[in-house]
Design brief:
Elements (H helix, E strand, L loop, with lengths): L1 H7 L5 E3 L8 H9 L5 E3 L5 H14 L5 E5 L5 H10 L4 E5 L7 H6 L3 E6 L2 H9 L5 E4 L5 E2 L5 H11 L4 E4 L5 H9 L4 E4 L1 H4 L8 H9 L5 E4 L7 E4 L2 H11 L4 H8 L2 H8 L22 H16 L7
Parallel strand pairs: 1-9, 2-3, 3-4, 4-5, 5-6, 6-8, 8-9
Antiparallel strand pairs: 7-11, 10-11
Helix pairs in contact: 2-3, 3-4, 8-14
The structure holds ligand TUI.
Ligand TUI binds next to strand 5 and strand 7.
């Protein structure tokens, strides 16, 4: 557990997921200021937007933070370049393999933490020099793999020697304690942080997460090979209907364009893409990031029967 905290220079081994649109500098800085690792989500954004967010985060906190680079984005290479130029301390990646970028990132001291959904990719990236991996189970929101957190995390822990961060379905101290029991050195949470006060998502998006029950975070896009979990609404109904009718990948992709922005900016909870994980059913309130982190850490320590990170 201390290995990850020392690697990243953080107080608590709690990472905030690098959610496209949702994870802005304001949220990331609040999480880092509270002792976790905040992460700016680059998503499909242009590199210069990411540069401005990096500088904004630095203006709010002197603590370390990260940038998540979504490798399916056409801007991914340019975003990596900005991350290197700005000497961001930590990079996480999603939806692909960051292999070609690892050397450049490491040459400026950036810690590289790919998000993986399989043992094979975790092993490959360890060989290529990754500093840690996030093992993300299918309970997560957004783009997901095929293996549950409970089964994936211990298999990745057995397969690699670098620290493993568990993600998917974790939203409180019980989830963190369970992840530690599985051998994880830390956790990453996305959905819970959508409902941080500092998160700039529209209030209606946050309210939808708070209002969600256990069966509301569903998967669309299985037929495209890029499954995405989001809250059930008019958009997911239309999408699943099209999928059932055998629509082409292009047609389905067209339906999805601009939908995250619609949810984040307009709060359109009917037609927007409300990406969220299965832990949405555990999220009950909108509170400051610091309160989220401190309450979870205290709950974890209570369950473990000892002080681990606080004094
Ligand atoms: O990346 C994520 N979650 C995401 S990315 C995203 S942005 C988006 N926007 C609109 C439509 C679709 C996506 C939203 N949520 N999580 C990390 C993650 N990476 N989960 C699974 C993977 C993954 C999957 C396959 C990583 C690598 C991989 O294969 C790479 C290879 O080369 O084998």
């Amino acid at each position: 557990m201390d290995r990850l905290r020392n690697l990243l220079g953080i107080e608590f081994p709690v990472l905030q997921g690098g959610m496209a649109w949702v994870a802005t500098a304001k949220l990331a800085a609040a999480v880092s200021a509270a002792g976790g690792l905040g992460i700016i989500g680059a998503g499909h954004a242009p590199a210069e937007w990411v540069r401005q967010e990096i500088r904004k985060a630095r203006s709010i906190t002197s603590k370390p933070f990260g940038v998540n680079v979504m490798l399916m984005s056409p801007c991914a290479s340019e975003v990596m370049q900005v991350v290197v130029e700005e000497r961001v301390p930590v990079v996480t990646t999603g939806a692909g393999s960051p292999g070609p970028f690892i050397e450049a990132l490491k040459s400026v001291g950036c810690k590289v933490i790919p998000v993986v959904a399989s043992v094979a990719l975790a092993k490959r990236l360890e060989r290529m020099g990754a500093d840690a991996v996030v093992a993300e189970g299918l309970e997560s929101g957004g783009h997901i793999g095929e293996i549950s957190t409970m089964a994936l995390v211990p298999q990745v822990v057995d397969a690699v020697n670098i620290p493993v961060i568990a993600a998917g379905g974790i939203a409180d101290g019980r989830g963190i304690a369970a992840a530690l029991m599985l051998g994880a050195s830390g956790v990453q949470l996305g959905t819970r942080f959508i409902c941080a006060i500092e998160c700039e998502a529209h209030k209606a998006y946050k309210d939808a997460v708070v209002g969600a029950g256990d069966r509301d975070a569903i998967v669309c896009g299985l037929s495209t090979g890029h499954p995405v979990r989001s809250l059930k609404n008019q958009l997911t109904r239309e999408y699943l209907q099209l999928e059932k009718q055998g629509a082409s990948e292009e047609e389905l992709e067209r339906l999805g364009v601009g939908r995250l922005r619609l949810a984040f900016e307009q709060g359109d909870v009917r037609n927007g893409s409300l990406m969220a994980g299965q832990s949405a059913g555990l999220v009950k309130e909108i509170i400051p990031a610091r309160e989220i982190i401190i309450s979870m850490v205290k709950e974890t320590e209570r369950l473990m029967g000892r002080r681990i990170w606080t004094n």
